[in-house]
Amino acid sequence: MAWIFLFVAGLLEVAWAYTMKLSLGFTKPVPSILTIVAMIASFTLLSIAMKSLPLGTAYTIWTGIGAVGAFLLGILVLGEPANAMRIGAAALIVTGLVMMKFSS
Questions:
Q1: Which of 5, 7, 77, 89 is placed for a possible disulfide with 45 were both Cys, Cβ 3.0 to 4.6 Å?
Q2: Are 19 and 34 in contact (CB under 8 A)?
């Protein structure tokens, strides 16, 4: 169950990063509220996952899901550039996540 909580926490990290972008520096109420709610839910699920997963593993996976997810969302939804260097960097993050998962 801890891995499921961690995965959902990572997806919620992507959600709060995106809604934070939409909040325009917390000047728009609805995206600002969504950001805070997603943050609280993400941190809560991360803390539950950390009850049985090592700190380094849980935090690395959580931030990795958030980083790669935000990267993909930026490309697919916000029209951010998808050049070879950025894609290569994201691939290295995913490789690290897979290695971290198998080391646990």
A1: 5
A2: yes
